[in-house]
Design goal:
The structure holds 2 protein chains of 2 kinds. Chain A has helices at about 10-25, 50-65, 85-90, 110-115, 130-135, 140-145, 155-160, 170-175, 195-205, 215, 245-260, 295-310, 340-365, 390-395, 395-420, 450-460, 475-490, and strands at about 5-10, 35-45, 80, 100, 180-190, 220-225, 230-235, 265-270, 280, 320, 330, 420-425. Chain A is α/β, with parallel strands linked by helices. Chain A folds into 3 domains: about 5-100 and about 150-325, Rossmann fold; about 110-145, no CATH class; about 340-490, no CATH class. In chain A, strand 2 (about 35-45), helix 2 and strand 3 form a beta-alpha-beta unit. Chain A is elongated, with a radius of gyration of 24 Å. The two termini of chain A are about 30 Å apart. Chain B has one domain (about 1-10, about 25-140). Chain B has 6 helices and no strands. In chain B, helix 5 (about 95-100) packs across helix 6. By secondary structure, chain B is an all-alpha fold. Classes of the chains: A alpha/beta, B mainly alpha. The interface of A and B includes residues 371, 377, 379 and 450 of A.
Chain lengths: ~500, ~150
């Protein structure tokens, strides 16, 4: 049964959780219960936002790589598509379609957007009234440029974001929605865009009769994750981190009245962190807003897996779930998590980490020496030559797709390690102690990349990992299998 | 098989065969010495290259490794042949040959003493050739060293 999961990522947190989700998909994690396609939809007026553009680039690379793998079954096995690809049945990869376009936010200030200047000052003789608007919005709000988002002001966001339900993208979403499809919404409660967008979106999904296939969408399973404050800012200015908790409390109260108690959503996950939080570099938005990846964003991505896994047992009454770890620590590793999460992450990101580390540190020794990197072996059948030769590793596809994605993956892990609480399940390794990759695990025997190279040599004869048309098939399938075998053999994966 | 190997070893390459010393060659023929020489240069390289191509799990092997392995194979065959020749000729159970060797006027002593080295060199040369052939055959069945020697 082919099912689609539409994931709305609202605001900067939405983008960052989608980034974590993409990393898990790349590492071989797959949604259960037949959800074979994921459609990420980012809602963010801040088009130049660093987090947003990084996520869009990651999603683009993911798609480009996946399109070059014949029937991916491990790494990159989950299909990701844009609404546009679905609606037009187009194979063209264009990351701009991951984002819903908001009109009139590029150049306008908020007062221009709401037509404030055309309102009357004379409340006695006019139907409209500037002073009433001034009660709701401060002078700063009114003069605020919309192209960097709502700067933590959901009262502005709730007005501007109302328009996306009338957009072509939202119509396409409705048109492509299938009978067994589901929806998941990611937002933060302490900012502007996410806090405002979530109730608006839920309201429209459950109640907008103009939406194509409304009858199905209005009763479709909807899950969501709402982020409570989990980081602070390096300085207080237009966005004041000290107000995060207060805003969160007010928003929760509103969500409780309008969403939870009215059972508008099937499952709502809450996640947050108090106390030992990281201070992000202050930025109101734009390309400067590029927060470091955080463990809570990875945990949020796990909520999506949980939602799909339990989709057949969801109730009409809203279920509230919270994420927790087993041991309260500043340096989280696999052993500090509950066993289910530990298994899920250990079996996926450990493999992908070993794969990226190998390509960075192990490949130079093997390239043009080990059999799996040679395509010109004399007196040997063509079917036993490797396609992963020097030409492949020098190819534009490898350098502009595989390498950048792997760099993003390494950056993602590095940022989570540098954040608070740190997520650092891996050790720094060299080519000689590569198998000491998992913190606290010292395998017996040779610890270098040699065992990966041996497995790759053996796998070179495996016809199931070959494809003439799709260039990355052999690399991705080979490392999916070889890392699995080596890590399992050395008991480095939690089973 | 004895006749086939006898034909191979009773040649004048390396100055091995000399019809003036029939006792030596008759003894080697009768006691299966030629078969032992032949098995040495056929079986030992086969086992060595089987180990190289099937058992040696080293993915970074290059031509130098292959050459070193070939040299080791030759040394093993050389030593084995030398030992067999010593046993079969100088420590033979053939009393007539022993008497001829101990009688300095026959010339057997000097000639027989030179033979183990000559047989070892001859078998070493054969190993060079057969090792290369084995290599080309066995690499087809290898998963890791399939790219060697080239």
């Amino acid at each position: 049964m082919a099912r689609k999961l539409y994931i709305f990522g609202i605001g900067g947190t939405g983008s960052r959780v989608l980034k974590s989700l993409s990393m898990l998909f790349a590492s071989g994690a797959k949604l259960e219960n037949g959800f074979d396609t994921v459609i990420p939809i980012i809602i963010d007026p801040d088009t130049s936002n660093g987090d947003l553009n990084r996520t869009k680039d990651i999603l683009r690379l993911y798609q480009e790589i996946r399109n070059q793998i014949d029937q991916p079954s491990d790494f990159y096995s989950q299909e990701i598509k844009t609404i546009n690809e679905l609606a037009n049945n187009s194979p063209v990869v264009n990351p701009d379609y991951f984002q819903f376009k908001l009109k009139n936010v590029d150049q306008n200030t908020f007062n221009q957007y709401i037509g404030f200047d055309s309102l009357s000052e004379d409340f006695k003789n006019s139907k409209d009234d500037k002073n009433f608007v001034r009660l709701l919005y401060s002078e700063k709000n009114l003069k605020s440029n919309l192209d960097v988002g709502f700067k933590g002001n959901p009262n502005m966001g709730s007005v501007v974001l109302n328009q996306f339900t009338n957009s072509d993208d939202f119509t396409k979403f409705g048109q492509t929605f299938g009978d067994d499809d589901a929806i998941f919404i990611i937002n933060s409660i302490f900012g502007g865009t996410g806090a405002a967008g979530f109730p608006l979106l839920v309201k429209n999904l459950r109640g907008n009769k103009n939406l194509p296939r409304f009858a199905k969408i209005s009763v479709a399973p909807i899950g969501g994750i709402t982020y409570l404050p989990y980081f602070s800012l390096s300085k207080q200015d237009e966005i004041n981190a000290e107000s995060f908790e207060e805003k969160a409390k007010i928003a929760i109260d509103y969500y409780n009245r309008t969403i939870i108690s009215q059972n508008k959503i099937n499952t709502l996950y809450f996640i947050g962190n108090r106390g030992n939080t990281n201070h992000e570099e202050y930025a109101v938005g734009g390309q400067d807003q590029k927060n470091k990846a955080h463990f809570l964003e990875l945990a949020g991505a796990l909520a999506i897996f949980d939602f799909c896994k339990k989709i057949n047992s969801i109730t009409q009454t809203t279920q509230i779930k919270e994420f927790g770890i087993e041991k309260n620590t500043e340096n989280i590793s696999f052993d500090d998590m509950n066993i289910e999460n530990a298994k899920q992450l250990s079996s996926t990101i450990t493999k992908f980490k070993l794969y990226t580390e190998y390509l960075n540190k192990g490949l130079p020794k093997a390239l043009n020496t080990a059999r799996w990197t040679k395509s010109n072996i004399k007196l040997v059948n063509l079917s036993r030559q490797s396609s992963l030769d020097k030409n492949y590793f020098n190819s534009a596809e490898y350098k502009t797709q595989i390498q950048p994605f792997n760099n993003y993956f390494d950056e993602w892990l590095r940022e989570m390690k540098e954040n608070k609480p740190a997520f650092s399940p891996f050790e720094e390794i060299s080519a000689d102690n590569a198998l000491e990759i998992v913190k606290g695990q010292i395998p017996k025997g040779n610890k270098s990349f040699k065992s990966i190279d041996i497995e790759n040599c053996i796998l070179t004869d495996d016809v199931s990992i070959r494809s003439k048309e799709k260039k990355h098939t052999t690399l991705i399938k080979m490392f999916g299998k070889s890392t699995e075998k080596v890590l399992s053999k050395h008991n480095l994966i939690i089973r | 098989m004895n006749r086939i190997f006898a034909a191979l070893y009773e040649n004048n390459w390396f100055g091995i065969y000399d019809q003036n010393y029939p006792l030596i060659f008759d003894t080697l023929y009768d006691n299966g010495g030629y078969v032992k020489f032949g098995v040495s240069f056929i079986l030992i390289p086969f086992i060595c290259w089987l180990l190289f191509y099937r058992a040696w799990k080293y993915p970074y092997g290059n031509l130098l490794h292959w050459l070193v392995w070939l040299a080791i194979t030759i040394v093993v065959v050389f030593s084995t042949t030398y030992g067999i020749a010593n046993m079969e000729i100088l420590a033979s159970s053939n009393q007539a040959l022993n008497n001829a060797i101990s009688n300095s006027s026959t010339g057997y002593a000097g000639y027989s003493a030179s033979l183990p080295l000559k047989y070892a060199l001859f078998n070493g040369s054969l190993t060079l050739v057969i090792g290369f052939i084995y290599s080309l055959i066995l690499k087809q069945y290898s998963k890791i060293q399939i790219h060697l020697p080239f």
